[in-house]
């Protein structure tokens, strides 16, 4: 093997080993992150955030509850959607409930979609609810 070809093979092996190391690190980091978000302390903090008076904290807690599928937040999310005044947070709440995929949560989304005074909220929540129905019947892909 020529010297330049040997260097090329060595460089390729080096790059591959770095990529494998980075990929493995990413996988283990994601597993650790998910485990942290499911700890009792994190769930308690999410529920406190969902019930917060600060709209930014509330919005972030709702988002993370849906993103990580924290089923323990189902009842606080349902209660929050029933009582929420801010239309933009209603949408985030409906999406979080949708991501949890529980019929009880989607029933609340359906109720708000039928009863809300704002046409845009009714349309957005109806769309979320209809998508949920299609997916639960196996018609659409999540």
Structure description:
By secondary structure, this protein is mostly helical. It folds into 2 domains: 1-37; 42-136, Alpha Horseshoe (Leucine-rich Repeat Variant). The chain has 7 helices and no strands. The protein has helices spanning 3-37, 40-50, 55-67, 74-83, 87-100, 103-115, 119-136. Helix 4 packs antiparallel against helix 5 (87-100), helix 4 packs parallel to helix 6 and helix 5 packs parallel to helix 7. The radius of gyration is 22 Å and the shape is globular. The mean pLDDT is 83.
Defining key terms:
single chain, 142 residues, Leucine-rich Repeat Variant, 2 domains, 7 helices
Question: What is the number of beta strands?
Answer: 0
User: Roughly how many Å apart are the termini?
Assistant: 52 Å
CATH topology of the largest domain: Leucine-rich Repeat Variant
The CATH superfamily title of the largest domain: Leucine-rich Repeat Variant
Oligomeric state of the chains present here: single chain
- The stretches of 5 or more residues where confidence is low (pLDDT under 50) are none
Which CATH C-level class of the largest domain is it?
Mainly Alpha
User: What order do the helices and strands follow?
Assistant: HHHHHHH
Number of domains: 2
- Would you tell me the structural class of the helices and strands? mainly alpha
Approximate strand percentage: under 5%
What share of residues is helical?
A: over 70%
CATH architecture of the largest domain: Alpha Horseshoe
Q: For the report, how would you describe the main beta sheet?
A: none
